[in-house]
Design a protein that fits this description.
Blueprint lengths: L24 H5 L10 H14 L3 E8 L5 E7 L2 H5 L1 H12 L11 E6 L8 H15 L8 E6 L4 H14 L39 H13 L3 E8 L5 E2 L4 E4 L5 H21 L3 E2 L5 E2 L7 H5 L3 E8 L1 H4 L2 E3 L5 E3 H21 L1 H11 L9 E4 L4 H13 L5 E3 L2 E7 L4 E7 L4 E4 L5 H8 L18 H5 L3 E4 L5 E2 L17 E4 L4 H12 L5 E3 L3 E3 L2 E3 L4 E4 L8 H11 L5 E3 L15 E3 L5 E5 L5 H15 L4 E4 L13 E4 L10 H12 L3 E5 L34 H5 L7 E7 L12 E6 L12 E6 L5 E3 L13 E9 L2 E6 L13 H9 L8
Helix pairs in contact: 2-5, 5-11, 8-11
């Protein structure tokens, strides 16, 4: 791969062509772009400087990260367009039907997003070069184009990488691949503060950066969106057109214009002899990327990938004997960014015409998705997600509808009640509705870059149908407000337990040093029925000042209903003094981090505790995990990871002692491999029934495709649930799990098989390889192995995956709070 820079390139013409009214990035910063990494605050300083110097550039702060770094958008256009920016925005939105109006928009709107992955750091450097070129040499393109630039989507991750690199790099920089400066420590700079991959969070919008960005994106709805990335150091540059599979909703124009963009890029790369590739690796299916989300919102969404990533630093030797420099990487990204603006400017009218066509939304097979509102909390959480994307929803009338039943996978009649949620595809964002809610996406190719199933009714645990006819609905339903009152003579207060909001309420009670209980059996009392898991807060357990007032405040703050009762003598079930009404002690929770752990899985657990449960936990590093006194904790969580060197026999013995003494050990995903088939543990790997030793005679060209027969790439499977087990309290007898790998384990012989796959189980949505899928039936999903007075929880699939599989979260809360929580501490 050749990375020698030829300064004859049109975009780098300097000298007399450059305007004297604004400084270049190098002049402003005092060093040449590419000679060092620019910390985020200095990037912000440059964009502020440009907007303060030029009246045709506007800078807007749109948010702040977890670590309090600002997030900015820069608007660049002609002076006339900047003066009329709000009218251009509204005219564009009127084309979609999002707002009323018949304005004709003739301006192309191009959004350029840089550095969503913090250690793919060349793009933020290129953003400064790009804005300088646009306001100096490329002013003609600005006459009919509004460019929106986000110079750094992920400042926390970027500064984590840049600060580390500046600390360890040699002077001059060392190009040897073995040098320390080319080997980032855990967790790396790729993710945000909570170690989430922001490029997979667009649709789920779990992270603060995504939520604030999505709000601005929906305010503008651009015609073109580019996400700038980096890949391995030995790869040529990648740009559009993308690879198959394409989702079926993607229009001919969207694929056609990607090709036009790619050819325009190629004309510049060809002149310089730069290597590139297209139509490989990066597909357009999973809806939560920075290219696919915009596509499903009508834009031309594209990913550009420059060689480099966190390994490259300021320069590194590639396997082809060339030195890949930061300067070259930034130049390549600047080239494609400017080329994108150029081709968009030339096609401004066509972009607007096709953009308007996209929102007709008359091609969807399904016209309405109906979700049974049997749990207000669950419905509210889904409504909150839809609100973030400004997707409209309505409510059902009493009656029935025929459609595809998500639970049975059959065409059936479905009884509707007032308050059931209905999402129609006949709305401006109906294409996105189809993508997010359809039971299964059509796969024209099984070689994909990410998960292949994500349907929201499964992810949120709804009974639902997809109807091919539009279901009648109403726009208003009466919201039930929760009002609580205290009774200082009450024997106890009772609260339900079936959603993660209930778990957050419990966490708040525990933090106030109150001691609630939970009922292992269903019961009825004073005319009301209560399910297993119901919280019982006894006055006798909580002899503290202002008990009633404190509990009322917590309940109101968490919007939870608490029911005062005058007795512990139940009508049916077991009385409150029964051993089956168990106290929940304040749990001391530890979470393993560091080398060996998956940073993403760790981040999911960390985020879950801090931002959803709002419950404290102690983060322990793998470097000293074996020396930790486990008796200081009640719950230890091992996220997904590879723990071969971390969980040696001595540490496994210590963990066994911890559980036998009453502790709860929660293992997720790959962490199970450290316990499977080991002496003292009942977990056993499930062996394939088709073991074979035949020679591999598959042609070389077909070997990659053959290998995926052993993989499961994010497919949905239906499991059987033992709803009588505390680990499953709040669930019904079925649970739809997102399986992320082909790893399978036998049913536990000495333990509780709480959720498992029955004989004949098949994937109901998403890709599962022909070999891998045969091993899923009669395998474990979630189980509890009792050891002494404690237990090990095995979670084969990750119930917290990307924080979007909302229906799995209560399993984790159950494991933390309901299992072994009555043990003496």
């Amino acid at each position: 791969m050749k990375f020698k820079i030829f300064f004859s390139i049109a975009f780098l013409t300097i000298g007399s062509l450059f305007s004297q009214t604004v400084q270049s990035p190098s002049e402003f910063l005092g060093y040449e772009i590419g000679s060092r990494f620019t910390r985020h605050h200095k990037v912000v300083d440059y964009f502020k400087y440009v907007s303060n110097t030029l009246t045709n550039v506007k800078l807007e702060k749109y948010g702040e990260t977890n670590e309090h770094r600002p997030l900015y958008l820069s608007y660049i256009s002609s002076q006339e367009n900047i003066d009329d920016l709000e009218n251009i925005r509204k005219s564009n939105l009127s084309q979609t039907g999002i707002i009323d109006g018949n304005s004709v928009n003739k301006k192309a709107i191009v959004w350029l997003s840089y550095n969503v992955h913090g250690n793919e750091a060349s793009s933020t450097e290129s953003s400064m070069l790009t804005i300088y070129e646009l306001v100096t040499n490329k002013k003609d393109w600005l006459k009919n184009t509004v460019i929106i630039m986000d110079p750094c989507v992920n400042p926390d991750g970027r500064d984590r990488y840049v600060n580390w690199y500046n600390q360890v790099k040699s002077t001059p920089f060392d190009v040897d691949q073995d040098a320390k400066e080319h080997h980032e420590p855990w967790p790396g700079g790729r993710p945000n503060h909570y170690l989430f991959d922001l490029n997979r969070d667009w649709a789920w919008a779990t992270q603060v950066e995504s939520q604030q960005r999505i709000k601005m994106y929906n305010k503008w709805m651009p015609h073109v969106h580019v996400d700038f990335h980096e890949q391995g150091i030995n790869s040529p540059y990648y740009f559009a057109p993308a690879a198959a599979p394409f989702h079926e909703v993607i229009t001919e124009w969207q694929t056609e214009f990607q090709t036009q963009v790619g050819k325009n890029h190629a004309s510049y790369f060809d002149k310089e002899g730069w290597l590139y590739f297209t139509k490989e690796s990066f597909d357009l299916l999973y809806p939560s990327y920075g290219d696919t989300y915009p596509i499903y919102m009508g834009a031309i969404g594209m990913t550009y990938e420059q060689a480099g990533h966190g390994r490259a630093g300021l320069g590194i030797d590639t396997n082809e004997g060339e030195v890949l420099t930061l300067k070259a990487r930034a130049t390549h990204h600047m080239t494609t960014g400017l080329s994108t603006v150029e081709i968009s400017s030339k096609n401004a009218e066509k972009l607007n015409t096709e953009f308007k066509k996209f929102f007709k939304n008359n091609n969807s097979d399904y016209k309405s998705f109906v979700l049974k509102n049997d749990n207000d909390d669950k419905t509210d959480r889904l409504k909150s997600l839809l609100d973030k994307h400004e997707i409209k929803y309505e409510f059902a009338n009493s009656g029935s509808v025929k459609g595809y039943n998500y639970s049975t996978q059959k065409e059936e009649k479905f009884t509707t009640s007032k308050g059931d949620l209905i999402i129609h595809t006949d709305q401006p964002k109906g294409t996105m509705v189809q993508v997010l809610f359809e039971p299964k996406a059509k796969l024209v190719d099984s070689l994909t870059y990410d998960i292949t199933a994500w349907s929201l009714p499964y992810a949120y645990g709804f009974n639902a149908v997809a109807s091919k006819t539009k279901v009648s609905s109403t726009t208003n339903t009466t919201a039930q407000s929760i009002t609580n009152s205290i009774d200082k003579s009450a024997y106890a207060y009772i609260a339900k337990w079936n959603t993660i909001k209930d778990a957050t309420f419990l966490a708040a009670i525990l933090k106030e040093n109150m001691t609630p209980r939970f009922a292992e059996k269903s019961f009825s009392l004073e005319g009301n029925s209560y399910e297993k898991g119901t919280l019982v807060i006894l006055r006798n357990d909580n002899r503290i000042a202002n008990f009633d007032d404190k509990l009322l405040e917590i309940a109101n703050n968490n919007n939870r209903k608490i029911q005062a009762v005058s007795t512990g003598f139940v009508d049916t079930g077991l009385d409150f003094g029964s051993a089956s009404v168990k106290p929940i002690k304040k749990q001391r929770v530890a979470l393993l981090s560091g080398d060996g752990t998956s940073s993403l899985s760790f981040g999911e657990v960390w985020y879950f505790f801090e931002q959803e449960l709002k419950y404290p936990l102690t983060v322990i590093n793998s470097d000293y995990f074996s020396r930790t006194d486990f008796s200081n904790y009640d719950v230890i969580i091992l996220p997904d990871g590879r723990y071969g060197s971390v969980l040696n026999q001595n540490t496994l013995d210590k963990l066994s002692t911890f559980t036998r003494s009453g502790g709860t050990l929660i293992t997720i995903g790959g962490a199970l491999n450290s316990f499977a088939d080991k002496k003292g543990f009942s977990l056993k790997r499930k062996k394939s029934k088709e073991e074979t030793t035949e020679s591999n005679l598959t042609p070389y060209a077909n070997q990659e495709r053959k290998s995926i027969g052993n993989l499961i790439t994010g497919a949905i499977f239906k499991s059987k649930v033992d709803a009588t087990h505390p680990l499953a309290f709040g669930y019904t007898e079925e649970y739809f799990s997102l399986k992320l790998s082909g790893s399978t384990f036998n049913y536990l012989e000495n333990g509780g098989n709480v959720a498992y796959f029955e004989k004949g189980t098949k994937n109901i949505s998403g890709y599962a390889g022909s070999k891998a899928v045969k091993n899923v039936p009669e395998s474990l999903l979630f189980g509890e192995e009792k050891m002494g007075s404690g237990s090990i929880i095995y979670m084969v699939d990750n119930p917290l995956f990307r924080s979007f599989w909302d229906n799995g979260k209560l399993f984790v809360a159950n494991a933390v709070f309901l299992l072994n929580s009555d043990n003496l501490k």
